[in-house]
Amino acid sequence: MIHLSVWLAVLAAIFVPLERLCAIQRQTGFRRQLPLDLFLYFASGFVPALVLAAPLAALTALAQSHLPEDYCTALDRLPGPGRLTISFAVAEVGFYWGHRWSHEWPWLWRYHALHHEPERLDWLVNSRTHPIDMIFTRLCGLVPIHLLGLASAKWDRGGAIAAAVVALSTWWGFFLHANVRWRFGWLEQLVATPAFHHWHHVADTPLNRNFAATLPALDRFFGTLHLPARDWPERYGIGAPPQRDASTDEL
Which spans are transmembrane here (predicted)? Predict the structure, then answer.
């Protein structure tokens, strides 16, 4: 809990001044549900790690005992940056589908909706997530890298690969939710930015877009990208119940 408190102070020191100076929408005072957001910040940082530690360790052991020896040897020869890059790409696909399913399946949406309730976005909304929602999404991203042996205990000491993937997507998420009006031109086609993710929280149409955590190319490939060159959403929150998009079901 101490390290979470330290990180909260660091994040606040970075984003609070930025949101005052570079706001998309000027905000006065604190959001009404700030106490709940702070509670969920600590819960989302602690509960998923506690719940997932044993199941993911079991998956790692299962992968080590069933994957071909030549395959494991090839993985073992990969340099650290190469293993991390492959793991990150695999996990990102899982995170994309976990997030998308959380919108399309009603029993998952009931938990994910908590994240979409705020009508004002700021950096702390990133961790405004129900623990069940967080656990499900992380499973979608981390299970593949464990089953593929990318998080093998033979060389991934201390679960560094999975921890790095989660840390990168989590900390980048604070920037994606920040109330800053910055645009990044062609870079927005390569890396998710606030403009990209703010359209995910739009209360009006188009709904159910921009599910990727960091790679917009996934939304482009699966037909869920919406990224106007200049516009920003006018309203945030839950405007209408989520519906399956028939145009993307055929992909």
Answer: 38-59, 159-180
Q: Average per-residue pLDDT in the chain? A: 88
Q: What pLDDT is stored for residue 1 in this prediction?
A: 65
Instruction: For residue 251, tell me if it sits in a domain.
Output: no
SS (HEC) of the chain: CHHHHHHHHHHHHHHHHHHHHCCCCCCCCCCCCHHHHHHHHHHHHHHHHHHHHHHHHHHHHHHHHHCCHHHHHHHHHCCHHHHHHHHHHHHHHHHHHHHHHHHHCHHHHHHHHHHHCCCCCCHHHHHCCCHHHHHHHHHHHHHHHHHCCCCCCCCCHHHHHHHHHHHHHHHHHHHHHCCCCCCCHHHHHCCCCHHHHHHHHECCCCCCCCCCCCCHHHHHHHCCCCCCCCCCCCCECCCCCCCCCHHHHCC
Mean pLDDT, residues 206-217 taken together: 95
57-72 per-position pLDDT tens digit: 888 888 878 888 888 8
In a domain, 249, yes or no: no
Assigned domain for 244 exists: no
Q: The whole model's pTM is what? A: 0.89
3-state secondary structure 199-214: HHHECCCCCCCCCCCC
Count how many domains the chain has.
Answer: 1
Structural domain includes residue 46: yes
